[in-house]
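Dear colleague,

Thank you for sharing your sequence with our group. We've completed the structure prediction you requested, and as agreed, I am returning the results in plain text so they can be pasted directly into your records. Please verify that the sequence below matches your submission; if there's any discrepancy, let me know and we will rerun it promptly.
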Amino acid sequence: MVEAPSPLPHQNDTYEFCIILPPRINSAGIWENLAYPSTMLTYSLPLLEMQIVMIFVSSHLIYAILKPLGITLFASQIIAGLILGPPIMGKLNAFRNIFYRRELGVEMIDAVSVFGFTLFIFLTGVKMDVKMAFNSTKKSVVIGIISLLSPIVVGIVLHKTFNEHKRMNDVIKTERIVGTLIESTTSFSVIACVLTELKIINSELGRLALSSASVGDLSTLFLVHIISLSQDWATSPLLALQRVLVAFLFITVLFFVFRPMMFWIIKKTPEGEPIEEVYIVAILMVAIGCAIFTHWTQQAPLIGAFLFGLAVPDGPPLGSTLINKFECFVNGIFLAVYITASAMRVNPRKMVSNPPRVKFSIISFFLTFLAKFISCFIASFVSFMPFRDSLAFGLIMSSKGVVELAYFSTFRDNWVISEATFSVAVFAILVNATVIPLLVRFLYDPVSRKYAGYKRRNLMHLKPDAELRVLACIHWPENVSAMIDLLDLTCPMTESPSVIYALHLIELMARDSPVFIAHHKHETNTNVGGSFEDILAFYQYEQNNWGLVTVNAFTAISPPKLMHEDICTMALDKQTSFIILPFHRKWSVNGSVEAENNVVRNVNCSVLDRSPCSVGILIDRGGRRKPMKSSSYSVGILFLGGKDDREALTLAKRMARDPRVKLTVIRLIAYQDRRDVLDWDTIMDIEILKDVKQNNGVLGNGCDMMYVEQVSDSGSQTAKIIRTVADYYDLIIVGRRYGVESIQSMGLSEWSEFPELGIVGDLFASTDLDSRVSVLVVQQQHYIAESRH
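Please find the predicted C-alpha cells below.
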C-alpha cells in the first residue's frame, strides 16, 4: 500500500492505492477468465492498448463529423479529450476503470504520451532548417522578433495593471509571468502543422511564416535560457556557471561529434539507396538519450531531443528518411494520445471556483493574441504584402497548438500553474485552433496564390550585377542541347554570373511514392531514370564556362499532376528569376511533327498559372543549331507591347552583350498607334525601347543591335510578317501576352491552337509555318503585390 499526495497543485486530498508486485504486463486475453473478462484490464499492456484505441477512435470519429465544417484534427483531439475527461465520460464507472485506475491507467498513458511528444520534438528539430533562421531576410527577422516581444510587452503592462490595487503572492506572480511567456511564443512546429493542414506550406506566404517562426522559436529559446540563467545566478553563481558549461559541452558534442558521424553515414550510403536500419535505430536511441541527459542535468527535458534534431542534416537522404519513417506513426498515434490525455485533465469546477485567475487568464490570452496578430499584420502589410494576405499571415503567426499545450501541461505538473489557469489555457488553445484555420481559408486561396510572389523575381527587376538564377526543366534527352544553347546565349559574365538549376522530370510509373534526388558533382552513380547523360551535359557546360556558370542538378520522379509542384517549389526554394520549360511538341529532322506529349503540355500550363517567377517556353523545331562557340548568332524579338514583351526584350538585351549575338528588335505598330495616346503600359514600352533606338546599329560594347518598326493593322498582316521574318533568325523571342487584345493580333485568337503560347507564339508553333527557327515565349512573373486588396 502506498500513500501519495495529490498530483494536482493547490489540492490537499490524499490518495491510497495498491501496487501489484511483480507487475502484471501481459494477459492471456478474455479467455483467461470468461466469467469476468474485465480482469484482462488488470494487466498493463491490454489496458494501455484499450486506452490508445479509445483515444484514436473517439478523436477520429469527432474529426470525421467536424471535418466538413473545417475543424482541424488537432482541435478534434482536444474535443475528444474534453469528452473523455472526468466531467463527462469520467463519471461512468466502466470508463473510470479504464482511464482513471491510479495503480495502472494514469501513469501508463502519461508515460507513453510524454515519450511520443519527445519524438515529436525531435522530428521538429529535424524538419527545422537552422540556416533558414540565420539566412532569413530582414523581413523574417523583424517579424520573428516582433511576434515574440509585442505580446510580452502587453503581458507586462497587463501584469502591472492587475497588480496596482492589491498585493499578490509569489505563486500567482510566477504563474502569470510563465503564462505570458507561453502565450507569447511562436512555435515553428505549430506553424508548420497549421500550414500543412491548410496545404500552403510550400507557398510564399507559408515560407515567410516558417522563416519568421524559426527566428521566433530560436529567440524564445535564447530568452528563456537567459531568464533561467539569471535566476540561477541570483541563487548560486557557481550553479549557473556549471549549467552553462554543461550546455556548452552538450552542444559541442552534438554538432562536432554526432553531426559529422551522420554526414559519414550519408557519405557511406550510395545515392538513391535508403539509409540502413541500424543507423536509423541508433539515431532514434541517441535522441531519447539526449532528452534523458538534459532532464538529468536539470535542463528542460525536451530541449535535448530538439537540439539533436537540429544537428541531423536536413533533407535527403537522412533527414527525409527519419521524417518518412516516423512522422506518420508519431503524429498519428503518440501525439494524438498526448493531446487527448492533456485535454482529459481539464477541470471546469476549478474554473468556477477561482474567478480572479480565470478572468486574468482570459484577458491575458486575448490581449497577447491581439498584440501578436496586429504586430505581424502591420509588419507584413508595410512590406508590400496584400491586405488579405497580411491578415492571413497575422492569423497564422498567432496560431497555438500542441507545443503551447505541452508547456501548460508541464508547468501544471510542476505546480507552477493552477488547474484553473490550465483549464482556461486548453479552452483558449481549442478556440484558437478552431477559428484561425477557418479565417485563413476564407482570406487566402491556396490554388491561385500558392506560389504567387511578394518579391519581384523577374528579369526586368534584376540588378545588372546580380547573378541570374535559372531553373531549366527537361523531360527528354532531346531537350538538353537546345536548353544549353539557350542558357549559353544569356551571356554569363564575371560581374553577373549564372546559376543553373537543371531539373530532370520523370513520370512516376511503377513506384509507390515520388522521389526527389539532388545529384552531386563527380558522382558516378547518377543514372537514375536515365538522367546520367543529361546531367553530365549540364556539368560539361559548367566546365566550359568555369567561374561564370554554376550548375546544380536534380531529378524529380513524380506523378504528372504533381510535376508543376516540383518545378514551382524549387523555383521558390532557389529564388530563381526565370524558368525555362520545353514545349510539348517534338519535331523530326525533316521538320515534321514527330510526337506530342499532353502530360508535358499540362505541366507547362500549370506552371504558367502558378509560377513564382518569370517563365519561358522553348519551342525547338530541330533545325539550324549552331555550335555553342559559333562566330555569330542571329536573335530576333517581335515587340507588340505589354509586360511580357518588356520581359522578353530585357532577356534579349542581356543576350546582346555577347559579341556573337546579332539582335534585331522588330516593333509591330498599328497605323493609328502613331497618335500621341499614352497610357502607363505605353510609357513603360517607350522607356524600355529608348536605349534600343539610341543604339540602333551598334551597342556600346560592340554588339550588333538593330531596331525596326513595321506597321500591322490586322492579325493577317501580323501572320504574314511572322512568315517573312522566321527564316532570318536562329532564335526568335516573343512575349506571351495571354488575354491581351490588340489591333495587330485581331482575329488570330479564334485560330489559336496553344493558348499557353499566346497568339504570336502559337503562330510560330503552327505546323503551317515552314521554318526551323527556335522560339522562346516569355511570360513575366505575376506579382500579386501590384494590387493591394
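Summary note from our side: The chain has a mean pLDDT of 81.

Kind regards,
the structure core
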